[in-house]
TrEMBL record:
Source organism, top-level taxon: Bacteria
Biological source species: Lentibacillus amyloliquefaciens
SUPFAM superfamilies according to UniProt: P-loop containing nucleoside triphosphate hydrolases
Official protein name in the record: tRNA threonylcarbamoyladenosine biosynthesis protein TsaE
GO biological process per UniProt: tRNA threonylcarbamoyladenosine modification
NCBIfam families per the UniProt record, alphabetical: T6A_YjeE
Localisation: Cytoplasm
Keywords for the protein's UniProt record, in alphabetical order: ATP-binding, Cytoplasm, Magnesium, Metal-binding, Nucleotide-binding, tRNA processing
One GO cellular component, as annotated: cytoplasm
């Protein structure tokens, strides 16, 4: 499995990487975000939204679990932290099989509902302003997307 890593030095840089990614995504694509609290998952999602032309402010959907935004295509922003150790299924597959982009914070809590192909992004805290973004593409489409984000066209 190939790895694509990006080191960012501010929240804006993280948003910029996500914005570049957004421009390469197509309807039905799924991006999972893993990383500790404060790693930058929601910040990354803000960049995706920007790239999709969404003007509304994106906030963490921790309590609602899913928020929908409408830009070039729908963006479904999920934060499933609350589902830790729960068997709850709130109809994820419909979102994953739909025509929007799904971005899932803490996706490992709903691993069994994830499609077979998606882009896994792991964010880790290096210091107050530095984060390491690690893209792990699952499947050819995401492999090509990650490749382009990294700039090898
Ligand atoms: P999470 O959703 O993973 O809990 P957030 O995106 O809500 O994390 O919070 C990340 C925090 O870290 C924000 O306050 C952001 O401004 C700050 N930050 C500092 N440097 C970075 C960076 N390089 N990338 C992303 N966020 C950063
Ligand atoms: Mg968050």
């Amino acid at each position: 499995m190939s790895k694509y890593q990006f080191k960012t030095h501010s929240d804006i840089e993280t948003r910029n990487v996500a914005e570049r990614l957004a421009l390469l995504l197509k309807p039905g694509d799924v991006v999972t975000l893993e990383g500790d609290l404060g790693a930058g998952k929601t910040t990354f999602t803000k960049g995706l939204a920007n790239g999709l032309g969404i003007k509304r402010t994106v906030n963490s959907p921790t309590f609602t679990m899913i928020k929908e935004y409408h830009g070039e295509m729908p963006l479904y922003h999920m934060d499933v932290y609350r589902l830790e150790d729960s068997e709850e299924d709130i109809g994820f597959e419909e979102y994953f099989n739909g025509n929007g982009i799904c971005v899932v914070e803490w996706a490992h809590f709903i691993e069994r509902y994830l499609p077979s192909e998606y882009l896994a992004v792991n964010l880790s805290y290096i210091n107050e302003t530095t984060r390491l973004l690690d893209f792990r593409p699952m499947g050819e489409h995401y492999e090509s997307v990650a490749h382009k984000v990294a700039g090898y066209l």
